[in-house]
Every structure is written in C-alpha cells, then in structure tokens.
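B., you asked whether I could sanity-check this one before it goes into the benchmark set. Here's the sequence:
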Amino acid sequence: MSTMPKYFKRVFDDYQVLVKVNPVDFTGTELIVHPNGTVEKTEMDFDEEIFEDLQVDEFVAGNALEFNLHLAKS
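And here's what the prediction gave me:
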C-alpha cells in the first residue's frame, strides 16, 4: 500500500465532510465544511478498517488540493 495520504469526501444535505487518512498509521484529519463557509477540523485516529468504513458510508475519492484549500480556512 502507498504511504501517501488518501483523501475522501461526501456531500450531505447542507454540509460536506472531507477526510484525509495516513495509510501507514491510520491517523488523519476530518474537515466539516458548513454552509456558511466555516470549517471544523478534527484530528482522528482510525482503525485498519477505515477504508471499508468510508466506502460503506458512501464517501468518494477526494484530492489533496480540495482538502488543503478547506484546511486553510479552518
């Protein structure tokens, strides 16, 4: 498995969640982007099933540029 972070996103009714996962140690960051533009940032510790969990929760592949643009607003 690659050691590069993996990015995921999902749009809900009125907000968006972006997730960055480090596949080596399963740490990462979750961003919640609210309709008014505010961004909540949470540092996360995941387990080795995170990729399956994200798929079940209907997250799709994201990218570093989009994630980091929102991260800069947090």
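One thing to flag: The two ends are 30 Å apart (CA to CA). Otherwise nothing jumped out at me.
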